[in-house]
Write a structure and sequence with these properties.
Elements: E1 9-16, E2 26-33, E3 39-43, H1 44-47, H2 50-61, E4 68-71, H3 81-90, E5 104-106, H4 107-115, H5 124-131, H6 142-150, H7 154-175
Parallel strand pairs: 1-4, 4-5
Antiparallel strand pairs: 1-2, 2-3
């Protein structure tokens, strides 16, 4: 089904600081256009602060208002697109957030509905990639991205979010 609309499909993944401590700072966002394979990154490595990172992300997302957006386990208000929206509001980045909730498709949720809650062990994204022989070069588990941010290793976080959108794209190609 998704491959039929691949020209109108993007994948988003992001990294942030510890979700149990406020504020939860967005540290890197990656977008991948599924049809072209073109990826865009928004990270502390390039922009130096969260407000600029989010401003540039929002500018780019205005191009994708008519696209379906594939995410991985980003459906909660604690960790999801809703959190990016909240941070944009808190930092006065934009009045009108360019992503609508009806655009979002949670691939992990689709797999859970199809194969059951325990279809693969946690962290699911990593283990599902391993099971499908998808490269994990530069992939860092979310909990470790928190520590990388504390050590100011921003490029490693950016590389990880880029790898994750590529892994999700590989899942799409092999699943549908």
């Amino acid at each position: 089904m998704w491959l039929k609309i691949k020209e109108k499909l993007i994948i988003i993944h992001y990294a942030c600081t510890d979700v149990t401590k406020s504020p939860v700072i967005i540290t890197s966002i990656s977008i991948k256009n599924y049809a072209t394979g073109q990826a865009f990154s928004f990270s502390f490595d390039e922009y130096g602060d969260e407000k600029t990172l989010l401003s540039e992300f929002v500018k780019r997302m205005k191009e994708y208002q008519n696209y379906a957006i594939i995410t991985w386990n980003q459906k909660s208000s604690t960790y999801g697109i809703q959190h990016i929206q909240r941070r944009c509001k808190e930092l006065d980045v934009i009045e009108d957030f360019p992503i609508k909730m009806e655009q979002l498709v949670d691939l992990d949720g689709i797999y859970t509905d199809k194969y059951g809650r325990n279809y693969v062990k946690d962290p699911k994204l990593r283990y599902l990639a391993e099971l499908n022989s998808i490269t994990l070069k530069n992939f860092v588990d979310g909990v470790d991205e928190i520590f990388l941010f504390e050590k100011k290793e921003y490029k490693k976080i950016e590389n990880s979010t880029n790898r994750k959108v590529s892994v999700i794209a590989d899942f799409l190609t092999s699943s549908f």
